[in-house]
Design goal:
Length: 250
């Protein structure tokens, strides 16, 4: 991504740890309007922001200046859900533990009054659609699948341009980009599925487009309960998917 691509763009960084800090610094340098969210006032990203706000401040988040960053001390999922009710961030950097997109979708639907249950009858069939050796973790009770070309305990070389033919770190041949593998594995296994493509900011930080997530949420809104969905985030090398079943309260 070139520098001009972030100029005046609203970049929400969920989490102020190692990768969140990298994202804040890069996005500021590239002219982005950076909203960082973390519950800890002493998070690493706090050293590189221009302003710190305690709690949620929607007006402040929507009016961050280009080339600057504001840190909001609150729950990242809750505040990002509020932000997305008012506007669609250009880019979202997931730097919190777990699967940010899955947490956002669950939060969004629960706010709409639905019961969101983790897991789906489609779990096993989705796993069966993923090439052998790529699933590094699965939990049927939590409805989560994590995939990677990197073996467990390994660490990617950074920066990485994610070559299509083989892993840059291990040399392991690839059977295809992970986002495409997960797209095919979830297709037709649930009522609606979407794998958000994780772009790579200067080979160091992953992010997805807010418009992609909002498009999925609007599509979900048109579904008739009960239904099942799959929401994932993946780059060429790694991926994570949440499976949910949605119904109305009893």
């Amino acid at each position: 991504m070139e520098a001009e691509d972030l100029r005046n763009k609203l970049v929400v960084v969920a989490g102020g740890g190692y990768f969140g800090t990298k994202a804040v610094r890069l996005a500021k340098d590239m002219g982005g309007r950076v909203v960082a969210i973390d519950s800890r006032v002493d998070c690493e990203a706090s050293k590189f922001v221009d302003r710190i706000v305690k709690g949620e401040d929607l007006h402040g988040a929507l009016n961050v200046r280009a080339g600057s960053a504001t840190l909001f001390l609150c729950d990242a999922v809750e505040f990002l859900s509020h932000i997305m009710k008012a506007t669609v961030p250009d880019y979202i950097v997931p730097s919190v533990p777990g699967h940010l997109a899955g947490k956002l979708v669950k939060n969004w639907l629960e706010r709409e009054g639905f019961v969101v249950e983790c897991g789906s009858e489609a779990m096993r069939s989705v796993v069966e659609g993923i090439p052998e050796g790529l699933v590094v973790h699965q939990d049927e009770g939590m409805g989560i699948i994590i995939t990677s070309y990197m073996q467990e305990g390994g660490q990617c070389k950074v920066p990485c341009d994610q070559p299509l033919d083989r892993c840059k770190t291990t040399g392991r041949p690839k059977s295809g980009p992970m986002y495409r593998i997960l797209t095919y594995a979830t297709r037709d296994k649930v009522i609606l599925s979407r794998i958000l493509f994780s772009h790579n900011l200067r080979g160091e930080v992953g992010f997805f487009e807010g418009s992609e997530l909002m498009s999925f949420l609007l599509d979900v809104k048109r579904l008739k309960v009960p239904y099942s969905i799959a929401i994932g985030t993946a780059c060429g090398c790694h991926g994570i998917v949440n499976l949910f079943s949605i119904r109305t309260p009893s």
